[in-house]
Amino acid sequence: MRKTKRVTIKDIAELAGVSKATASLVLNGRSKELRVAEETRDRVLAIAKEHHYQPSIHARSLRDNRSHTIGLVVPEITNYGFAVFSHELETLCREAGVQLLISCSDENPGQETVVVNNMVARQVDGLIVASSMLNDADYQKLSEQMPVVLFDRHMNDSSLPLVITDSITPTAELVADIARQHPDEFYFLGGQPRLSPTRDRLEGFKQGVT
């Protein structure tokens, strides 16, 4: 089967009768900034659309030394909270012209290390992680190379940027309300006790029943 030739900026420039530099300015959204004639801009864009021109991601990465990709590591994508978060973040990234690469750690520190290393090898521009690890030594070292943001759970005494919700207060309020209406004996069923969300919810439970 014959392979279809990829349309390049050089091809667009030749078809539009302009220099490669002018075509590049137009296709990179800099025509107004450098005063390319409106007629020329429209002609280049029309030809690019007609020939289904797509910019080379590799060339773009070489030009500005970025991959335009962000890595997201979550424990499990089937978890409703992580699924919603991943969807919303992917939407925001898409609108910003950034690719979101999502991997699951399965709440396994060893698996988490593997997926993070794979993302680093793919030269992501930054990482957002809901970590299953108990200390941030690896991420502290990694943060010297790229931005690293933790979310959903915190590690002991970590100085890395963190986005987290307050699990203690709403859990305490909910449990206190239930205890007032149904003062019978009831129990706390949580996740892995070593992870901060479970510890925070348990603390909220204790506060709610006292």
UniProtKB/TrEMBL annotation:
Entry keyword annotation includes Transcription regulation: yes
Source superkingdom: Bacteria
Keyword annotations: DNA-binding, Repressor, Transcription, Transcription regulation
UniProt xrefs under SUPFAM superfamilies: lambda repressor-like DNA-binding domains, Periplasmic binding protein-like I
GO molecular function: DNA-binding transcription factor activity; transcription cis-regulatory region binding
Family annotation (InterPro entries): HTH_LacI, Lambda_DNA-bd_dom_sf, Peripla_BP/Lac1_sug-bd_dom, Peripla_BP_I
Pfam families recorded: LacI, Peripla_BP_1
Domain HTH lacI-type per the UniProt entry, residue ranges: 7-64
Keyword ATP-binding belongs to the record: no
CDD domains according to UniProt: HTH_LacI
SMART domains (alphabetical): HTH_LACI (SM00354)
Database matches in PANTHER family: CATABOLITE REPRESSOR_ACTIVATOR, LACI-RELATED TRANSCRIPTIONAL REPRESSOR
Protein name in UniProt: DNA-binding transcriptional regulator FruR
Gene this protein is translated from: fruR_1
